[in-house]
Amino acid sequence: MTQKDSGLSRRVLLRAPAVGAAAAGLAVLSGQSPASAMATPPTVYDVTTWRHSTNPAITCYTDIGALINDIIADIKTRQPNQSSKPGAVIYIPPGDYPLKTRVTVDVSYLTIRGDGHGFASSSIRYNAGDTWSWHEIWPGGSRIRVENTDGKSEAFLVSRSGDPRLSSVVFDNFCLDGLSFTPNQNAYTNGKIGIRVDTANDAFRIERMGFVYLERALIVRDADALSVRGNFIAECGSCVELIGSGQASKVTDNHIGAGHIGYSPPQHKDDLYGVVHLRGDGNMVTGNLFAYDVAPAKITPSAPNPPSSWSPPDTTTTCPTTAWSATSRRTSSCSMGAHRARR
Question: What is the pTM of this model?
């Protein structure tokens, strides 16, 4: 049975099959006996009050990864019936939590939720010199420090074999902080991955998150009806990678800014390569303006003329360089409305 912290909101407590007097009160309101309510498996877990099942030395303040793995094991133990698996919420209050052990998510209907994406620019701090007078120097909110001392790359690996595919897993409103890059703080390399979804999945949501200083922030394979919305994903080598097959997915209303080694622009291609490429069938990009301003001295090949006419290759829809700006800088931009990729 989970132990609830007194600081949790009344709403969270009422959503949980709570313990003690709260459970008895809910039982009276619902017509259940108090004994029946006490027997109900918990579905809301607070990382600050959960006690590890085998090692009391493991807490959210020593290794939140190992603790969350223990919570997931408890969920599977308490929900063995294939006809009734409601899943659970794992709540991460604001605070600093080291993640030394990779979390493996292999259950559907799991929400891992914090109370603050906590994004802050680590690049500015690392390049600012003396910061002794600053009010704060690290990201905040519900901040997970991705230390990965277990030798694994990912903070969270979502993966399950067999049928059906995983459904309705949610990562919401907390921060994944990769802490530093090597060999220097502008290298954008550290081998750390925020979230990797490595098997087929349906109706996943990654929303209101903060990703910072990770070599690869988010990788999702074989996504169906994925929503990546309202996140701050910046100062990462690569920001969002959707790989394998997929359909009916959207990446909307995010702040995305990658470093110089990844797949987000700049791509280190010449300027005739374009800005956006879509590969595959049935893609649609609508209502967007993609723009990248290139200084004259950096245009490659040297001073090419914008193409007077253009059509996409057989397998790729490309947003080309199309115009010269009034400041003699060339702007790579296009507005794509309901534009479908051709094969």
Answer: 0.73
